[in-house]
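Posting for a labmate who doesn't have an account.
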Amino acid sequence: MFHNLLTTERKKSLEHEYYVRVATVAAFGVSFAVLIGLLTLFPSYMHLRGELSLVNAAQASPNTTNATSTQSDSAHTLERSAQIFSLLKTHLHDETMKTMLDETLAARPAGVEVTGFAFDRATRKLTVEGVADTRDVFLEYIHNLEEQPRFTDVPHPIADLAKNTDLPFRLTFGYQIVDEQSQL
Protein backbone atom coordinates (compact mmCIF):
# COMPACT_ATOMS: atom_id res chain seq x y z
CA MET A 1 0.00 0.00 0.00
CA PHE A 2 1.27 3.48 -0.90
CA HIS A 3 0.97 6.47 1.38
CA ASN A 4 0.85 10.00 0.09
CA LEU A 5 3.59 12.00 1.82
CA LEU A 6 2.37 15.40 0.59
CA THR A 7 0.51 17.60 2.98
CA THR A 8 -3.01 18.69 2.22
CA GLU A 9 -1.88 22.26 1.64
CA ARG A 10 0.82 21.13 -0.81
CA LYS A 11 -1.72 18.98 -2.68
CA LYS A 12 -4.08 21.97 -3.00
CA SER A 13 -1.19 24.14 -4.14
CA LEU A 14 -0.18 21.63 -6.82
CA GLU A 15 -3.79 21.24 -7.95
CA HIS A 16 -4.14 25.02 -8.20
CA GLU A 17 -0.92 25.26 -10.25
CA TYR A 18 -2.21 22.52 -12.55
CA TYR A 19 -5.47 24.38 -13.26
CA VAL A 20 -3.60 27.62 -13.84
CA ARG A 21 -1.35 25.88 -16.39
CA VAL A 22 -4.35 24.29 -18.14
CA ALA A 23 -6.11 27.66 -18.29
CA THR A 24 -2.95 29.32 -19.65
CA VAL A 25 -2.53 26.70 -22.38
CA ALA A 26 -6.23 27.01 -23.30
CA ALA A 27 -5.97 30.82 -23.46
CA PHE A 28 -2.90 30.59 -25.71
CA GLY A 29 -4.69 28.07 -27.91
CA VAL A 30 -7.74 30.30 -28.31
CA SER A 31 -5.62 33.38 -29.00
CA PHE A 32 -3.59 31.41 -31.57
CA ALA A 33 -6.81 30.28 -33.29
CA VAL A 34 -8.10 33.88 -33.39
CA LEU A 35 -4.78 35.07 -34.82
CA ILE A 36 -4.82 32.40 -37.53
CA GLY A 37 -8.43 33.31 -38.33
CA LEU A 38 -7.54 36.97 -38.72
CA LEU A 39 -4.56 36.14 -40.93
CA THR A 40 -6.71 33.96 -43.21
CA LEU A 41 -9.38 36.67 -43.50
CA PHE A 42 -6.91 39.41 -44.44
CA PRO A 43 -6.64 38.45 -48.15
CA SER A 44 -10.44 38.36 -48.40
CA TYR A 45 -10.60 41.81 -46.84
CA MET A 46 -8.07 43.15 -49.33
CA HIS A 47 -9.95 41.58 -52.26
CA LEU A 48 -13.28 43.04 -51.13
CA ARG A 49 -11.67 46.43 -50.57
CA GLY A 50 -10.35 46.39 -54.13
CA GLU A 51 -13.74 45.33 -55.51
CA LEU A 52 -15.43 48.10 -53.55
CA SER A 53 -13.03 50.71 -54.92
CA LEU A 54 -13.71 49.44 -58.48
CA VAL A 55 -17.46 49.66 -57.95
CA ASN A 56 -17.16 53.13 -56.43
CA ALA A 57 -14.99 54.27 -59.34
CA ALA A 58 -17.46 52.82 -61.85
CA GLN A 59 -20.38 54.57 -60.16
CA ALA A 60 -18.53 57.88 -59.95
CA SER A 61 -17.36 57.74 -63.57
CA PRO A 62 -20.72 58.45 -65.28
CA ASN A 63 -21.48 61.31 -62.87
CA THR A 64 -18.22 63.19 -63.45
CA THR A 65 -17.96 62.92 -67.23
CA ASN A 66 -20.29 64.39 -69.79
CA ALA A 67 -20.28 61.52 -72.26
CA THR A 68 -22.65 62.42 -75.05
CA SER A 69 -21.33 59.99 -77.58
CA THR A 70 -23.31 56.82 -78.20
CA GLN A 71 -20.08 54.89 -78.56
CA SER A 72 -18.86 55.70 -75.02
CA ASP A 73 -22.30 54.87 -73.59
CA SER A 74 -22.20 51.53 -75.39
CA ALA A 75 -18.68 50.84 -74.10
CA HIS A 76 -19.77 51.61 -70.55
CA THR A 77 -22.81 49.33 -70.87
CA LEU A 78 -20.63 46.59 -72.31
CA GLU A 79 -18.14 46.92 -69.42
CA ARG A 80 -20.90 46.75 -66.80
CA SER A 81 -22.41 43.72 -68.55
CA ALA A 82 -19.03 41.98 -68.53
CA GLN A 83 -18.69 42.61 -64.78
CA ILE A 84 -22.15 41.24 -64.09
CA PHE A 85 -21.50 38.23 -66.34
CA SER A 86 -18.25 37.42 -64.50
CA LEU A 87 -20.08 37.54 -61.16
CA LEU A 88 -22.81 35.26 -62.48
CA LYS A 89 -20.26 32.87 -63.98
CA THR A 90 -18.51 32.57 -60.60
CA HIS A 91 -21.87 31.83 -58.94
CA LEU A 92 -22.72 29.28 -61.65
CA HIS A 93 -19.42 27.46 -61.06
CA ASP A 94 -20.12 27.30 -57.31
CA GLU A 95 -23.59 25.88 -57.99
CA THR A 96 -22.10 23.32 -60.40
CA MET A 97 -19.62 22.14 -57.76
CA LYS A 98 -22.42 21.87 -55.19
CA THR A 99 -24.62 19.96 -57.63
CA MET A 100 -21.75 17.65 -58.53
CA LEU A 101 -21.04 16.82 -54.89
CA ASP A 102 -24.75 16.35 -54.12
CA GLU A 103 -25.23 13.97 -57.05
CA THR A 104 -22.13 11.97 -56.11
CA LEU A 105 -23.28 11.58 -52.52
CA ALA A 106 -26.88 10.83 -53.51
CA ALA A 107 -25.72 7.84 -55.60
CA ARG A 108 -23.97 6.27 -52.62
CA PRO A 109 -25.79 3.36 -50.98
CA ALA A 110 -25.60 2.48 -47.29
CA GLY A 111 -22.20 0.98 -46.58
CA VAL A 112 -20.18 3.35 -48.78
CA GLU A 113 -18.21 6.11 -47.09
CA VAL A 114 -16.80 8.87 -49.30
CA THR A 115 -13.54 10.20 -47.86
CA GLY A 116 -12.25 12.35 -50.71
CA PHE A 117 -13.55 14.40 -53.61
CA ALA A 118 -11.65 16.27 -56.35
CA PHE A 119 -12.59 17.86 -59.66
CA ASP A 120 -10.16 18.77 -62.44
CA ARG A 121 -11.73 21.65 -64.38
CA ALA A 122 -9.41 21.29 -67.37
CA THR A 123 -10.29 17.65 -68.08
CA ARG A 124 -13.70 17.73 -66.35
CA LYS A 125 -12.76 14.58 -64.47
CA LEU A 126 -14.18 13.86 -61.05
CA THR A 127 -12.27 11.71 -58.54
CA VAL A 128 -14.07 10.10 -55.61
CA GLU A 129 -12.23 8.19 -52.88
CA GLY A 130 -13.73 6.14 -50.10
CA VAL A 131 -14.30 2.81 -48.42
CA ALA A 132 -17.07 0.30 -49.14
CA ASP A 133 -18.18 -2.23 -46.53
CA THR A 134 -18.56 -5.06 -49.08
CA ARG A 135 -17.88 -5.81 -52.73
CA ASP A 136 -21.63 -5.86 -53.51
CA VAL A 137 -22.16 -2.41 -51.99
CA PHE A 138 -19.24 -1.07 -54.04
CA LEU A 139 -20.68 -2.53 -57.26
CA GLU A 140 -24.06 -1.01 -56.40
CA TYR A 141 -22.38 2.39 -55.99
CA ILE A 142 -20.73 2.06 -59.40
CA HIS A 143 -24.08 1.08 -60.92
CA ASN A 144 -25.79 4.09 -59.30
CA LEU A 145 -23.10 6.40 -60.67
CA GLU A 146 -23.53 4.96 -64.17
CA GLU A 147 -27.27 5.68 -64.03
CA GLN A 148 -26.64 9.39 -63.38
CA PRO A 149 -26.84 11.21 -66.75
CA ARG A 150 -24.03 13.67 -65.94
CA PHE A 151 -21.45 11.02 -65.06
CA THR A 152 -19.52 9.52 -67.97
CA ASP A 153 -16.91 6.79 -68.31
CA VAL A 154 -17.46 5.35 -64.81
CA PRO A 155 -14.72 2.70 -64.41
CA HIS A 156 -15.02 -0.83 -63.05
CA PRO A 157 -11.67 -1.14 -61.26
CA ILE A 158 -10.82 -4.82 -60.86
CA ALA A 159 -8.00 -4.09 -58.39
CA ASP A 160 -10.50 -2.54 -55.97
CA LEU A 161 -12.52 -5.77 -55.99
CA ALA A 162 -9.63 -7.90 -54.68
CA LYS A 163 -10.96 -7.86 -51.13
CA ASN A 164 -14.43 -8.93 -50.06
CA THR A 165 -14.90 -6.45 -47.18
CA ASP A 166 -13.61 -2.99 -46.30
CA LEU A 167 -12.72 -2.10 -49.89
CA PRO A 168 -10.83 1.16 -50.30
CA PHE A 169 -11.57 2.66 -53.71
CA ARG A 170 -10.66 5.54 -55.98
CA LEU A 171 -12.87 6.25 -58.99
CA THR A 172 -12.08 8.83 -61.68
CA PHE A 173 -14.78 9.54 -64.23
CA GLY A 174 -16.12 12.31 -66.43
CA TYR A 175 -18.69 14.93 -65.49
CA GLN A 176 -20.82 16.73 -68.07
CA ILE A 177 -21.58 20.31 -67.12
CA VAL A 178 -24.96 21.37 -68.45
CA ASP A 179 -24.75 24.64 -70.34
CA GLU A 180 -27.12 26.76 -68.26
CA GLN A 181 -26.46 29.88 -70.36
CA SER A 182 -28.66 28.48 -73.10
CA GLN A 183 -31.47 28.13 -70.57
CA LEU A 184 -31.21 31.80 -69.51
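Reply:
Got it, the C-alpha coordinates are right above this. The helical segments are 8-64, 70-106, 135-147.
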